[in-house]
């Protein structure tokens, strides 16, 4: 169990059976239309970056959101490249009844100070999460990362496997050994948009990220939160995602239970180019493929996702 204390060693999680190859996809109910008021968000909180790492950042501040009992098992949520901690509002609203729900803002996002380095690598992001957990006084946690956040989660699990109880990956990215021209063009287009401003970045919309049943309320929420993006965070994240870091090469380090949720309609991180390359190499993995869902399961079908996250926390 995660503790809001000085680091301690925790009991190892129960082993899951390795998936078959190719893995059998478990099905979720499918996305739900959302026509209710959105759940409210917790307040933005701040942490001082530990002095030992202060020289690696442009400032001395992490920002984050938190809900739920501090002494409950901790889940640390890691947002995608175009998002921030507000993306997890449905998880704050429901999972905080039983868990200590924490969502960081990666360096350069929301009100977190950016890296000093212009081109951070996987170790920089892993160490940033280590610094964040040190400031939170959390020793061993469960991680949940979406897209870019899934790669940060893997980087941390590879460098600090003893700090990760279990890991949920959604819209899973695994990186690449070589960048295709199409992938480079896609990421560079993001970089050019953010240089024009947060509104320009958000003007591209979110239709490519979500399934066709996603309600206008959810789409508007995603557009609004993406307006908070700033060049300092997003440009560094783009540089990282265009690097040669390829997580399947390090899969033997990820010995903790890993559950992966893949939307059948995900064209941002297609299964064949990402999850399918990692899954056979993980010793304790379970895979779920959801019809009607694209890249953002936490908001496309929050009820199904929260149920699965609760099951994961209790089953492993």
For the biggest β-sheet, the strand order reads: 1-2-4-3-5-6-7-8
CATH topology: Rossmann fold
Amino- and carboxy-terminal Cα gap: 11 Å
- Please give the share of residues in helix: 25-40%
Low-confidence stretches: 1-31
Query: How many beta-strand segments?
Result: 8
Main sheet summary: 8 strands, mixed
Q: Mean pLDDT, rounded to whole units?
A: 90
List keywords for this structure.
316 residues; alpha/beta; Rossmann fold; 8-stranded mixed sheet; 15% strand; globular; disordered N terminus
Q: Could you describe the 3D structure shown?
A:
The chain is α/β, with parallel strands linked by helices and 316 residues long. It has a single domain, classed as 3-Layer(aba) Sandwich (Rossmann fold), CATH 3.40.50.1820. 31% of the residues lie in helices and 15% in strands. It has ten helices and eight strands. The chain has helices at residues 89-95, 122-136, 148-159, 181-196, 198-202, 216-226, 231-241, 275-278, 297-300, 302-315, and strands spanning 44-48, 61-67, 74-78, 100-104, 141-146, 164-170, 258-263, 285-290. It has an eight-stranded mixed sheet with strand order 1-2-4-3-5-6-7-8, sandwiched between helices. Helix 1 (89-95) packs across helix 10, helix 2 (122-136) crosses helix 3 (148-159) and helix 4 runs antiparallel to helix 7. The protein is globular, with a radius of gyration of 18 Å. It starts with 43 loop residues before the first strand and ends with a helix. The model is unreliable at 1-31 (pLDDT under 50).
């Amino acid at each position: 169990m995660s503790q809001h204390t000085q680091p301690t060693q925790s009991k190892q999680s129960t082993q899951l059976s390795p998936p078959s190859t190719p893995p059998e996809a478990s099905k979720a109910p499918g996305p739900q239309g959302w026509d209710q008021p959105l759940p409210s968000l917790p307040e933005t909180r701040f942490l001082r970056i530990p002095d030992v790492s202060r020289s690696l950042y442009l400032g001395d501040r992490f920002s984050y959101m938190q809900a739920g009992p501090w002494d409950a098992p901790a889940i640390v949520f890691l947002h995608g490249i175009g998002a921030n901690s507000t993306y997890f509002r449905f998880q704050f609203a429901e999972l905080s009844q039983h868990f200590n729900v924490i969502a960081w803002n990666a360096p350069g996002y929301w009100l977190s100070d950016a890296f000093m380095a212009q081109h951070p690598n996987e170790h920089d992001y892993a160490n940033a999460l280590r610094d964040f957990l040190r400031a939170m006084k959390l020793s061993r946690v469960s991680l949940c990362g979406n897209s870019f956040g899934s790669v940060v989660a893997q980087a941390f699990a590879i460098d600090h496997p003893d700090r990760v109880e279990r890991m949920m990956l959604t819209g899973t990215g695994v990186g690449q050994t070589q960048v295709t021209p199409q992938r480079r063009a896609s990421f560079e287009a993001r970089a050019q948009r953010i240089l024009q401003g947060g509104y320009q970045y958000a003007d591209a919309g979110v239709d490519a990220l979500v399934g066709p049943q996603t309600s206008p309320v959810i789409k508007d929420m995603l557009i609004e939160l993406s307006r908070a993006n700033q060049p300092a965070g997003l440009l560094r994240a783009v540089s990282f995602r265009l690097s040669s870091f390829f997580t399947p090469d390090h899969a033997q380090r990820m010995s903790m239970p890993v559950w992966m949720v893949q939307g059948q309609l995900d064209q941002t991180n297609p299964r064949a180019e990402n999850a399918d390359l990692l899954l056979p190499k993980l010793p304790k993995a379970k895979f779920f493929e959801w019809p009607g869902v694209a890249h953002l399961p936490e908001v496309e079908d929050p009820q199904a996702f929260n149920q699965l996250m609760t099951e994961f926390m209790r089953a492993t």
